[in-house]
Design brief:
This protein has about 70 residues and is an all-alpha fold. The protein contains two helices and no strands. Helices cover about 80% and strands about 0% of the residues.
Length: about 70
C-alpha cells in the first residue's frame, strides 16, 4: 500500500471513496476495520492538505498578477 504522498490527488480521492463505500455498505470485515479507518484518515488528511496548498498557490498567483497589473 502506497503512502498517500506517493499518490496523485485523484488516486488518493478514489481510494478514499472506495473505503467509504465499503464502510457504508458494511463490506469491511471487523478484523480489517481499524486499518481501513486509519487509511481513510491518512488519505483524508493528505487530500485536505493538498487542497490547502493548492489554494495558497492560486492566491499567490492572483496576488502577483494584481501587483503586476498595478505596475503597468
Amino acid at each position: 500500500m502506497k503512502k498517500p504522498t506517493e499518490l496523485s490527488y485523484e488516486k488518493a480521492f478514489q481510494e478514499l471513496k472506495t473505503i467509504v463505500e465499503e464502510l457504508e455498505k458494511g463490506e469491511v470485515n471487523v478484523d480489517f476495520l481499524v486499518e481501513k479507518v486509519k487509511r481513510a484518515t491518512l488519505l483524508s488528511r493528505f487530500l485536505w492538505e493538498r487542497l490547502r496548498k493548492t489554494e495558497e498557490e492560486i492566491q499567490a498567483i492572483f496576488a502577483e498578477s494584481e501587483k503586476e497589473g498595478l505596475r503597468q
